[in-house]
């Protein structure tokens, strides 16, 4: 969304059929699409790709050969198993910026766990610092972790593009929900570290 706001041509890859689940989130709707979907997917074109069909992988190979940036949010290793990981695609396009967004990063003991905004919000301590100090942890009213991760990914991609301008080389950018939320709340966490934490 933000890259599109800056003028990039953004092509969103969706599943065949109904497409992105958020198309149906609502009300409110504009026509048959949710206002939420329209707001977070502004300035994007959409295509449907069936990753289980051989032509699906071929489409991604073709796009990655001519694009500047590829962003994905599969479990780590899933796209590599389909021949669509950074190593495979950067061989075809060495200048490719490949941004992977996951729950817990591309490596580590939890990298195969699916990531959701509310889980990372709880694990990071965001829910602990939300709501009454004497009350139970509270889920924020908006998807703060998803938003924070998107902002960090946006900044990291811009930095990788700048590096590529200087070196001619692409990069694999690793962004994850938990790290983004911890970084986003570091000031609050440091302030609360002086206090006894609820258990």
UniProtKB/TrEMBL annotation:
Cite the GO molecular-function annotations of the record: succinate-hydroxymethylglutarate CoA-transferase activity
Q: Which SUPFAM superfamilies match?
A: CoA-transferase family III (CaiB/BaiF) (SSF89796)
Q: Mind telling me which InterPro entries this protein's record contains? A: CoA-transferase_III_domain, CoA-Trfase_fam_III, CoA-Trfase_III_dom_1_sf
Q: Which Pfam families match?
A: CoA_transf_3
Keywords tagged on the record: Transferase
For this UniProt entry, what's an example GO CC term? mitochondrion
Q: Belongs to which family?
A: Belongs to the CoA-transferase III family.
| Protein name, per record | Succinyl-CoA:glutarate-CoA transferase
Organism name: Hippocampus comes (Tiger tail seahorse)
- Show the taxonomic lineage: Eukaryota, Metazoa, Chordata, Craniata, Vertebrata
């Amino acid at each position: 969304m933000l890259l599109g706001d800056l003028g990039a041509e953004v092509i969103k890859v969706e599943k065949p059929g109904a497409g992105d689940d958020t198309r149906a989130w609502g009300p409110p709707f504009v026509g048959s699409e949710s206002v939420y979907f329209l707001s977070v997917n502004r300035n994007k074109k959409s295509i449907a790709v069936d990753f289980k069909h051989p032509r699906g992988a071929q489409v991604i190979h073709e796009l990655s050969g001519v694009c500047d940036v590829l962003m994905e949010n599969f479990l780590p290793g899933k796209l590599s198993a389909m021949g669509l990981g950074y190593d495979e695609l950067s061989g075809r396009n060495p200048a490719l910026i490949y941004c992977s967004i996951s729950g817990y990063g591309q490596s580590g003991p939890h990298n195969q766990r699916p990531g959701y905004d509310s889980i990372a919000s709880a694990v990071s301590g965001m829910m602990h610092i939300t709501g009454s100090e004497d009350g139970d942890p509270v889920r924020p009213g908006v998807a703060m972790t998803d938003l924070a991760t998107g902002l960090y990914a946006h900044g990291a991609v811009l930095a990788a593009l700048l590096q590529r301008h200087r070196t001619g080389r692409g990069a694999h950018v690793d962004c994850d929900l938990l790290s983004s939320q911890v970084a986003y709340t570091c000031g609050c966490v440091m302030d609360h570290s002086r206090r006894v934490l609820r258990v």
